[in-house]
Design a protein that fits this description.
6-stranded antiparallel sheet; 11 helices; elongated; Rossmann fold; Elongation Factor Tu (Ef-tu), domain 3
Length: 362
């Protein structure tokens, strides 16, 4: 991030990515390189928060306990030919009493391994599960989700806890990432949206690891190594798209190159105003870099906008995209002055995102 960025990034411009149990297991096993690359990108971004819940961690511990035990059984039960009787192996997946391995003989190793993995989730991947707790108010929405859809009771609780993190906090925008095909197939918005509405909850964005899409139709499969090459370009575009969707009522357009004619000012920012978007004057704006490498909020309200000539009547809007310009000013000295050249140069780059900053409207 540019050193002059306004940090930390305000919550309204940050996207929460809620990770379910299978995602956490894939990460600690490094199952899919595309998923690991994606999590590393999001962890390093000031515009993303990686979260889970205490219930998911509870599930994770149980699943990892089983997996580590079965791996030890697998090591002992491999025949001289290198083949394993899978049916026999799975028979002991829940009761931990395979004749080849006594649980008490491996319990310490398993406990140590699982505890290390829980630490890895937080320390290596930056995933916070502490804020999403199991609170009493989750009971009724979990019942309703389960009884109104084909979603399992476990996934109903995961879903409810993702969008209602604690008794006082209902999420306004969260993306749930999953590779659970049954959950994805059972997530029916026609059945579930009325349930969410009845509890005054905002429906989440649900994405399947195998089918992460942009609105343009471009998509990637995070479980397919052949798609890894596309991620460096795809992921920033996906994150920017989510930021604009979350803030659709504040997003007014993207910057474009300004004119270079004689006399055209070099300290103004030009952008294309979205169609049918009202633009008022005396407002503060927030500009997010096209590469997600800066965020800048104007320090003084923008008193005037131009569309070839200074706009006289507000709110200004048009049914078609229309080019607008404005001059951001600095007030660090208590006097309105032009921005430093290194800042205005970045703000003027084409492709930056422009939002109304409601926290600064006078």
């Amino acid at each position: 991030m540019e050193t002059w960025s306004d940090l930390p990034v305000r919550e309204r411009f940050r996207i929460k990515f809620y990770l379910d149990t299978n995602i956490l297991a894939y990460l600690v096993d490094n199952t899919y390189s595309g998923l690991t690359f994606t999590m590393d990108f999001l962890k390093s971004s000031e515009f993303a928060d990686l979260v889970s819940s205490k219930y998911v961690i509870f599930e994770f511990v149980g699943i990892r306990k089983r997996e580590h035990y079965l791996r030890k059984v697998l090591q002992q039960s491999t025949s001289a030919t290198g083949k394993v009787n899978i049916s026999s192996l799975l028979k002991y997946k829940d009761n931990f009493n395979a004749p080849e391995v006594k649980f008490e003989d491996v319990q310490v190793d398993i406990k140590t391994s699982v505890e290390a993995e829980v630490e890895e989730i937080t320390n290596n991947f930056g995933i916070d599960y502490s804020a999403n707790i199991l609170h009493d108010t989750l009971l009724h929405p979990t019942f309703d989700i389960n009884l109104s859809s084909r979603i399992s009771k476990e996934d109903s609780l995961v879903l409810a806890s993702a969008i209602w993190s604690d008794a006082a906090t209902k999420e306004t925008f969260v993306l749930i990432a999953s590779n659970d095909q049954q959950f994805i197939d059972s997530y029916d918005t026609l059945l579930l949206n009325p349930v969410f509405a009845s509890h005054e909850l905002t429906p989440p964005v649900v994405e399947h690891l195998r089918n992460i899409k942009l609105e343009t139709g471009v998509k990637v499969n995070l479980t397919d190594v052949n798609d890894d090459v596309h991620l460096a370009l795809f992921l920033p575009n996906k994150l920017k798209e989510l930021i604009t969707i979350k803030n659709k009522n504040l997003f007014i357009g993207q910057t474009v190159n300004c004119g270079h004619g004689i006399g055209f000012p070099t300290n103004v920012v030009c952008f294309t105003l979205n169609p049918d978007t009202p633009l008022n004057n005396n407002i503060y704006l927030t500009i997010i870099g096209k590469g997600l490498d800066f965020v800048y909020s104007t320090k003084l309200p923008i008193a005037s906008f131009w569309n070839q000539t200074e706009i006289q009547a507000y709110p200004f809007q048009d049914v078609t995209p229309i080019n607008i310009s404005f001059r951001p000013m600095d007030d660090s000295t208590g006097v309105a002055l032009p921005l430093a050249q290194n800042i205005i140069t970045r703000l003027r780059e084409a492709g930056n995102l422009i939002f109304i900053n409601p926290d600064g409207i006078e």
